Structures are given as C-alpha cells and as structure tokens.
C-alpha cells in the first residue's frame, strides 16, 4: 500500500465539503493519481470493452490499467477470459497489439507458450524439475454483463457486481449486445483528470450551451432543471416531458422492456444508474434526424421508438442502448492530467455498411459531443491548476449526480486508506 503519511491526501479526504467540487490536488497531483489507481482502479469492477471486441476464438484485446497490462481473450469454448499480460518467465509483455488474433499466446522473448486457458504448454531448456503447471498466466477476474466486459484486479473483487447484474440484465438483454458487431470505435485522449471526465458525464447542466447535436434527440429537461426558473412555456414543456416519461415507461414495461429508473451511484461499491428515456422528434435513435441509424433492429421490438436506455457504472463507464444501435464509453486514466475515452458504436451483426446504415450518420452525434466534452474537460483541468481555483458549489437541480459520483469516490478512497471522515 502507498504511504500517505507525508501527503495531504488524508486531510483532503477528511475535509471534503459536500455539495462542492473537489480540491485541486484531486485533479492535479500525480501522487493522488497513483492513489486513485490503487484504491479505485485496482479494487473495483472496471469496464474495459464489449464481447464483440473479441468475437471469435483466439481474438484478443489488451488494456492497461495504471502499470497493469491486461489481456482479454476468447477461448476455444467461446468463453471470455482475462489474464495479466505478463509472461511467467521473466515478465515480458506477451501481446503487444491492442487487438489481434492468436492461436496460442507466444512470448517473443524466449518463446514460452500458453494456450487460451492460460496454461503453460511449452518452455524449452527448463530442466527436469520444472513444473509447467506452476507457471500458467495469472488470471484476472472478468465478468460479462450481457456482453459488457468488466475486469477487477483485486484478489477478492466486490461481491455486489452480482447485484448489479441481477438488476441490469433484464434492461440490457432485449438489445442482444452479443449479436452485434463493432461498426466504429474511436479513442480520444482528453487533457483532463479522469474524475473531471466522469463529473462532466454525470450532468447535463452544460448541454444546452455546448451540445447542439446531442440536444436534438435528448430532451432538455431529461436530467434536471430549476422549476422556479421556468417561464410558462418552459413549464408546459417540462410537464409534457414528465407525462411522456410516465406513459412511455408504462408502455415499454407492459411490453416486457424494463424502463424505470434504478439508481445506486453512491450506496454500493459497484455503483450504477439506469433509466430508459423517450427521445425527441421521431424518437428512434441518437441521430440528427432522431430516426433509426440502422435498418436492422437489435431485438424483437414492437416499435422503433424504444427510447434510449442509459446505463452508468462507477468508476468509468456510460452506455446508451437504442432499438437500432448501442454506444458504449469507457474512461481509462493515463496520468493525473490525461484520460483515454473509448467510444464504440455497435449495430446488428448482419448489418452492412452503406446498405443498412450510413456510418457518418451513425456516429455524428457522439463524435461531435465527445469533442465538445473533451474541450470542456480541458478547460476545467487548466482551471484546477490555477492558484485562483477553489471548490465551487454544485447545482442542487442539475448536478446532483456529480455530487453522488464525488461522494462515491471519497468513500472508496477513505475506506481503502482507512481515513475517518471529519464531521461535516
């Protein structure tokens, strides 16, 4: 465990002011970044990809979590497995490509060879006393939630993943994620701390002024507003939206499609939130004309107007499931001031680009939104480095979920480093 006796982390955790953003070192300190990796990313369930990232036996995906190199493979029985991407001989990295296809896993250094179950099956010149059974790849805990792949680096991972899975599987299953393919995948390096990336995602206070594309399919009142500030026309629109949510939920759930909100962002280690919300306009998908981007639906839906199911997980993901496509997002911290955001667009596995979907139309809304968010996160990162920065108050109407993220983060860090919170 990292020694915190000579750092301000303990004091910062104890004096965190509820309802306000975090103090600057949480966003700028390399030492606190290392503590984040230790307490958060090496202890919780982290979203790293989707099963269509490794669709066939031998397909492999690599991801780095801090200094930890992880390898995710599809084995010959079609199971998804995860291992430390480290040869058991002298520690060389086994797979160097982000995505590849292998027969066996062969270390380039001395040709130690492992099968897709992680067993060492070939190691020359090791002598008669050498037991290959003692030198298999070190496994990493891996779970697939209806096709969403999560890993945990802890020896004993949080058990409450099962609770999230029981709650969420009925919501996600109708979209048949395992029967999709990746239409497009992009990586964006945001110049900001991973917590700023997540805080930005957990509110839409900024959406009206910054996301003209996103606010075409999404209602302005979907993620909070101050009722006392609405004029008569705005109040009528808010009332119309609330009525549409109620009627849509009733209709979808009557058809066997779970839709109502479930929220456990700050009361579980494996925190999550979900709700299926109606879309504006024609209400079919996250596109500029709000119509479906792909001609082939993902499931046996009775209508193209299935809204958008959002699913957020702590610490690092958010997802949108529509009737015609899915968009997944992962935020992987790279340094105190950089975060990799990976966005993956998925369509029905039989869909043909240029026939069943137009790629530019499919990715337009979130490509623009991601770039806008990256710029905003960069602004905040630069601001946190200024001597003028101090924690500002959250809006109780539109940033309540940001507060829940920060509360979850402070709780995880405090528990890991055994910090007693000061009385508020």
UniProtKB/TrEMBL annotation:
Keywords: 2Fe-2S, Iron, Iron-sulfur, Metal-binding, Oxidoreductase
Residue ranges of every copy of the Rieske domain listed in the record: 45-151
Lineage: Bacteria, Pseudomonadati, Pseudomonadota, Alphaproteobacteria, Hyphomicrobiales
Highest taxon above the source species: Bacteria
Name under which the protein is recorded: Rieske 2Fe-2S family protein
One Gene Ontology MF term: 2 iron, 2 sulfur cluster binding
Essential cofactor(s): Fe cation
Species name: Aureimonas pseudogalii
């Amino acid at each position: 465990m990292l020694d915190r006796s000579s750092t301000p982390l303990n004091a910062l955790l104890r004096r965190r002011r509820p309802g306000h953003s975090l103090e600057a070192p949480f966003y700028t300190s390399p030492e606190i970044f290392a503590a984040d990796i230790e307490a958060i990313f090496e202890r919780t369930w982290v979203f790293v990809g989707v099963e269509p990232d490794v669709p066939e036996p031998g397909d492999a995906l690599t991801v780095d979590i801090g200094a930890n190199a992880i390898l995710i493979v599809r084995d010959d029985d079609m199971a998804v497995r995860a291992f430390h991407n480290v040869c058991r001989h002298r520690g060389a990295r086994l797979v160097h490509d982000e995505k590849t296809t292998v027969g066996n896993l062969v270390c380039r250094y001395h040709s130690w060879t492992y099968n897709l179950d992680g067993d060492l099956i070939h190691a020359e010149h090791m002598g008669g006393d050498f037991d290959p059974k003692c030198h298999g790849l070190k496994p990493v805990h891996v779970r697939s939630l209806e096709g969403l792949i999560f890993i945990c680096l802890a020896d004993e991972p949080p058990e409450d993943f099962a609770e999230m899975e029981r709650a969420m599987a009925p919501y996600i299953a109708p979209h048949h994620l395992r029967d999709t393919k990746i239409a497009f995948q992009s990586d964006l390096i945001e110049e900001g701390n991973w917590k700023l990336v997540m805080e930005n995602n957990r509110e839409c206070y900024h959406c009206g002024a910054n996301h003209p594309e996103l606010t075409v399919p999404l209602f302005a009142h979907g993620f909070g507003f101050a009722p006392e500030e609405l004029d008569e026309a705005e109040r009528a629109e808010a009332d119309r939206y609330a009525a549409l949510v109620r009627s849509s939920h009733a209709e979808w759930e009557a058809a066997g499609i779970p839709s109502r909100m479930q929220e456990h962002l700050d009361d579980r280690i494996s925190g999550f939130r979900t709700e299926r919300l109606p879309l504006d306009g024609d209400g079919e998908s996250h596109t500029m004309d709000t119509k479906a981007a792909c001609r082939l639906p993902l499931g046996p839906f009775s209508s193209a107007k299935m809204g958008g199911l959002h699913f957020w997980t702590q610490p690092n993901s958010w997802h949108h499931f529509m009737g015609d496509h899915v968009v997944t997002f992962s935020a992987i911290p790279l340094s105190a001031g950089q975060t990799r955001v990976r966005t993956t667009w998925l369509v029905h596995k039989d869909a043909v680009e240029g026939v069943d979907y137009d790629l530019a139309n499919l990715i337009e809304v979130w490509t623009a939104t991601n770039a806008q968010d990256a710029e905003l996160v960069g602004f905040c990162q630069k601001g946190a480095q200024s001597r003028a920065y101090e924690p500002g108050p959250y809006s109780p109407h539109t940033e309540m979920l940001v507060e829940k993220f920060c509360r979850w983060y402070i709780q995880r860090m405090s528990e890991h480093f055994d910090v007693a919170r000061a009385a508020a």
